């Protein structure tokens, strides 16, 4: 069961350059993961999960329920209910406001249709908060070729957001998002699977956060600076490409990794490298160890401190628009047990995931630091713990 999170990371640089850099990156890291499956319907299952995030002044937790069931040999339907209970506030919010509490509820339904070696899927998702409403749909097609050794996947998603603002009932902004995906996987040997994926994202409308502010110098202020609302462009185009692989080792183990490049029209260039190892102990236990490193350059219109009010047409101080990197180290433990052949339930798993993430910012300063002159505050850093516990039943 995947935890869903909202995120968005210049096509200044051609896709050919992206692919060249990806190939080099793949040689460096060696092996990477890829989701490669023959054209079969997903297994019937029910999942119940509790997730928790603690870090950076934020606490986020809640439950999730997933149900999936086949209808005959060609159709599978699914439904997912997911809740985030959020409390606290990140540092850039605390600089201008108080901690807050809110709840986000997400509902999703989906259908998969299998015809020969073609798997088609359609999903619809809604997300609701007290000041934010979103809906999206996704359509995907997966096709096996060459004796099921090659799999081609195509995907398209479209989303619509309604952005409000607490305390201002007249505030209503709209945004539209589109996402195109292309992927291909290849079984190279009995032990190795390689893959390549390309993604294009197009956003337009109101794309910034109404609660976030930029700061600018003001000698007349007690702090030496004041705040004003961020202003973002109303369009954004993003490209991403990844090369991945999975190598199966003796004794029911495998090693995987991923190299991914990202670039957008706001000037953000980013890369992600991931490496993991999975090992099975006996017939019941599966242990996974993983590491992930992410690094990005700042947006063209980002600054920690501006010289004056409205210095440029577009202005941002959201730390997610800055230059930063994070390192995640994680582990998962799964215990699996089988039911009797006559039982309606086939098997069940108990799963525990834990990740520790450290964030380091190169040009976002901690304005809450005491005894520091304006513009010379220490660069911000923090760590977070992410935990997921869930039970799956297959039938």
What does it look like?
The protein is mainly beta and 395 residues long. The protein contains two helices and 18 strands. The chain has helices at residues 15-29, 91-94; strands at residues 45-55, 58-71, 75-88, 100-115, 118-128, 132-145, 150-165, 168-187, 192-205, 213-217, 225-229, 235-249, 253-264, 269-281, 285-296, 324-338, 347-365, 379-394. A 16-stranded antiparallel β-barrel has the order 1-2-3-4-5-6-7-8-9-12-13-14-15-16-17-18. A hairpin with a 3-residue loop joins strand 14 (269-281) and strand 15. It is globular and about 80 Å long. The two termini are 16 Å apart. Mean pLDDT is 90; it is low at 1-37.
Strand and helix map with partners:
Layout: H1 15-29, E1 45-55, E2 58-71, E3 75-88, H2 91-94, E4 100-115, E5 118-128, E6 132-145, E7 150-165, E8 168-187, E9 192-205, E10 213-217, E11 225-229, E12 235-249, E13 253-264, E14 269-281, E15 285-296, E16 324-338, E17 347-365, E18 379-394
Antiparallel strand pairs: 1-2, 1-18, 2-3, 3-4, 4-5, 5-6, 6-7, 7-8, 8-9, 9-12, 10-11, 12-13, 13-14, 14-15, 15-16, 16-17, 17-18
- What is the percentage of strand-forming residues? over 45%
Number of strands: 18
Q: What oligomeric state do these chains adopt? A: single chain
Distance between the termini: 16 Å
Radius of gyration: 23 Å
Tell me the overall shape: globular
Q: Element order, helices and strands?
A: HEEEHEEEEEEEEEEEEEEE
Kindly state the percentage of residues in helix: under 10%
Would you summarize the structure shown here?
By secondary structure, this protein is mainly β. The protein contains two helices and 18 strands. The strands form two sheets. It has a 16-stranded antiparallel β-barrel.
């Amino acid at each position: 069961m995947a935890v869903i999170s909202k995120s968005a990371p210049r096509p200044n640089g051609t896709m050919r350059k992206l692919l060249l850099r990806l190939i080099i990156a793949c040689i460096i890291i060696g092996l990477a993961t890829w989701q490669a499956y023959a054209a079969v319907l997903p297994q019937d299952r029910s999942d119940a999960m509790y997730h928790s995030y603690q870090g950076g002044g934020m606490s986020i937790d809640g439950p999730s329920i997933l149900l999936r069931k086949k209808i005959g040999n060609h159709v599978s339907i699914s439904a997912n209910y997911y809740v985030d209970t959020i409390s606290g506030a990140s540092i850039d919010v605390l600089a201008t406001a108080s901690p807050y509490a809110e709840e986000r509820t997400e509902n999703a339904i989906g259908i998969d249709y299998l015809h020969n070696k073609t798997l088609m899927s359609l999903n619809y998702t809604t997300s609701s908060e007290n000041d934010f409403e979103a809906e999206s749909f996704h359509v995907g097609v997966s096709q096996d070729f060459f004796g099921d050794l090659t799999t081609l996947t195509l995907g398209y998603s479209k989303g619509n957001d309604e952005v409000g603002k607490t305390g201002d009932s007249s505030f209503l902004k709209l945004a539209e998002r589109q996402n195109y995906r292309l992927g291909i996987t290849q079984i190279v040997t009995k032990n190795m699977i390689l893959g390549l994926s390309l993604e294009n994202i197009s956003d337009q409308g109101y794309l910034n956060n109404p609660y976030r502010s930029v700061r600018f110098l003001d000698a007349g202020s007690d702090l030496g600076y004041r705040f004003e609302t961020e202003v973002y462009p109303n369009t954004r185009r993003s490209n991403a490409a990844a090369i991945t692989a999975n190598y199966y080792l003796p004794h029911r183990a495998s090693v995987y990794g991923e190299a991914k490049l990202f670039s957008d029209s706001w000037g953000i260039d980013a890369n992600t490298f991931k490496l993991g190892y999975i090992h099975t102990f006996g017939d019941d236990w599966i242990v996974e160890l993983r590491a992930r490193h992410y690094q990005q350059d700042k947006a063209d219109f980002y600054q920690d401190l501006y010289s004056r009010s409205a210095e440029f047409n577009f202005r941002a101080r959201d730390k997610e628009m800055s230059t930063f990197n994070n390192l995640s180290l994680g582990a998962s433990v799964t215990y699996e047990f089988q039911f009797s052949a006559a039982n309606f339930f086939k098997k069940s798993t108990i799963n525990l995931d834990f990740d520790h993430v450290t964030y380091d910012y190169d040009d976002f300063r901690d304005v809450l630091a005491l005894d520091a002159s304006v513009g010379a505050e220490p660069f911000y850093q923090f760590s977070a713990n992410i935990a997921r516990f869930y039970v799956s039943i297959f039938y």
